[in-house]
Amino acid sequence: MIAAISWIPKGVSKAEPVFAEPPSKDEIEEIISNTLTSVGDEDENEEDANKQNDEVAHALTVAGAIGKPSNGNSDDISDALKDLNMDNYDEEDDKGFELFSSGNGDLFYQSNELDPYINDKNEEYDSEDMEDMIINPTDSVVVCARTEDDVNFLEVWILEDANTRDMNLYIHHDIIIPEFPLCTAWLDCPLKGGEKGNFLAVGSMGPSIEIWDLDVIDEVEPCVVLGGKEKRKKGKNGKKKSAKYKEDSHTDSVLGLAWNKEYSNTLASASADKRVKIWDIVAGKCTITMDHHSDKVQAVAWNHRAQQILLSGSFDHTVALKDVRTPSHSGYTWSVSADVESLAWDPHTEHSFAVSLEDGTIQCFDVRTAMSNATSVQNATFTLHAHDKSVTSVSYNTAAPNLLATGSMDKTVKLWDLSNNQPSSVASKEPKAGAVFSISFSEDNPFLLAIGGSKGKLQLWDTLSDEGISRRYGKFNRNQPQSVA
């Protein structure tokens, strides 16, 4: 399944991503040890099974880390499984799987020069493979947070020649991540010194937020981890102590993330622990914790023009507005008819936002009608029964005013004209995505809509190919198709 999608702005990715330095033996053993001690406070009957599952998952990570650099082939995981002989995992002898044994053939060499089994130590990678690794400034990049067969990873896709008949989409590389991903947010905050970067924050079933460098291939650890659990230490009796959460960490799944473009070191997070947190990414710490909701917080969104203003939506059937400069203020709230699934500010105005709900409806609100306590659903500027099942994701088109896309568990994606607060259906599509979990219009190619769902295959919809969209919104297309010889 694909749980979340993020477009990466054109031109920010390195033309030639770098390969991560292979970890040393000690580093690999530390990675495995850290993972095996992060099981948490589970009962003893389940501990052995969970430990074995973690060993298998991180054996895959280590295999990828100490192998040759990935060429972006989507079969890397399958190859790693074959190398580890996972089909016969349960049939191995008592020695188990060893990363380092006494046999010379099992040694890891820091360079090709030291490896006696490589004949051509100066062999270059195939020129076509290297050409495929280059990211051109004109390429569009989109990242999917995906899970398949209990393996979690970020897929970095390249879209070449967007808005032409030669449009080509392929996987550039992927990053294996330890936890089941739920949400993502791209950011360019300078985490590695004075220069801006190309990073993706990932919220997951665990309480931590991991930030990964998208310009590094075969990375085995994130650049920054916000929150999470402390390493478990053994007590005097030899048994592991219960894991404790890091200071100011979330204590349950991270369900929503939002990066602040104006204050680039700032990230907001929403969690099943009923809290909203504001993080200083550079310092690696939480600066504000807000507990103004009484149930799981599903989504957060910064206002595009007044970027101290944050929306949050919850399973408590409310949407809240807070000015983070005065977090102790009660803020403003709106009641909605069901659990909140997603939120989005209208990019063409600073005072309007849409919220999608579990009951299949979309509601739009005007913050100028805000009250300091929750008001009735009648205060919505409109309520639209958009889908037959939960509306999991919404996305405004940044080029065409009043154009909103909605994605649903009913397996459909729909486009709506919201003019005059009287929404009307413009187009509908059932992509081959299964139940739809995430949709996102590209800002660089505004009429390209990325779609991810339960089938785990990224789908792109060129919405201008629909006659109704082309006729009504074609004038807003700033990327006119180029003629093909």
Automatic annotation (TrEMBL):
Pfam families found in the cross-reference section: WD40
Name of the protein described by the UniProt record: Putative transcription factor WD40-like family
BP GO annotations: rRNA processing
GO CC list: nucleus
InterPro entries for this protein: PWP1 (IPR044285), WD40/YVTN_repeat-like_dom_sf (IPR015943), WD40_PAC1 (IPR020472), WD40_repeat_CS (IPR019775), WD40_repeat_dom_sf (IPR036322), WD40_rpt (IPR001680)
Organism: Medicago truncatula (Barrel medic)
SUPFAM superfamilies (UniProt xref): WD40 repeat-like
WD repeats (start-end): 247-289, 384-426
Keywords: Phosphoprotein, Repeat, WD repeat
Gene name as annotated: 11421055
